[in-house]
Amino acid sequence: MIFAVNSKATGGYFHVMPRTIFELPNDLLIGHMLIDDDHAKLVRLINETGAALQEKQYQESTRLIMEFIDGMKHHFDTEEAILLETEFPWIDEHIASHRQVILKLPRLIDECEKVIDGDQAWNKLIDNLVDCMMEDAFKADMVFKTFLTQNRS
Ligand SMILES: [Fe+2]
Ligand SMILES: [Fe+2]
């Protein structure tokens, strides 16, 4: 599930912005600055990983995936603290959904190795990074967004 593909080659040495493979749709903004910043950071890591894989910079892509895994775990901790603070009523379900995603994260490293060995296409790995991210940002966090909106008015 790749949402936006920008095939424009940047060329040259000055990559001011990494090529965008995946963009988070605006309606997936939660309306909480810390959460939205975290999601944006994770999206940026996905795009950087995609660019590194395309350029066969495998050491860099492995490093970025490890950063993505740490970033997801850190994000879940931050988010769970926010859910607690705002007295979100479905916190247990939300934490359970985070745990489900955490179980899938170590596989990303194995899949990166498959790409390096030439056994798998790089975009399949990017799809899996996007799936991990969307399982949180889309499936779980949208419930919190609704809660936040209702409690603000
Ligand atoms: Fe979440
Ligand atoms: Fe989230």
How would you describe this protein?
With 153 residues, this protein is mainly α. The protein has one domain: Four Helix Bundle (Hemerythrin (Met), subunit A). Helices cover 69% and strands 0% of the residues. It has 5 helices and no strands. Helix 2 (58-85) runs antiparallel to helix 4 (106-116) and helix 4 (106-116) packs antiparallel against helix 5 (122-152). It is elongated and about 50 Å long. Residues 4-17 have low confidence and may be disordered. The structure holds fe (ii) ion (2 copies). One fe (ii) ion binds next to helix 1, helix 2 and helix 5.
Key phrases:
153 residues; mainly alpha; Four Helix Bundle (Hemerythrin (Met), subunit A); 5 helices; 69% helix; 0% strand; binds fe (ii) ion
How do the strands and helices of this protein lay out in sequence?
Blueprint: H1 33-54, H2 58-85, H3 91-104, H4 106-116, H5 122-152
Bound molecules: fe (ii) ion (2 copies).
User: What is the CATH homologous superfamily assignment?
Assistant: Hemerythrin-like
Helix content: 55-70%
Ligands, ions, cofactors? fe (ii) ion
Strand fraction equals under 5%
What is the name of the CATH architecture? Up-down Bundle
CATH topology: Four Helix Bundle (Hemerythrin (Met), subunit A)
CATH class bucket = Mainly Alpha
Any idea what the shape is? elongated
The tally of beta strands, per DSSP, is: 0
Distance between the termini: 35 Å
Major beta sheet summary: none
Q: What's the number of domains? A: 1
Order of H and E elements: HHHHH
Radius of gyration: 16 Å
- Any low-confidence stretches, pLDDT <50, length ≥5? 4-17
Quote the average pLDDT.
89
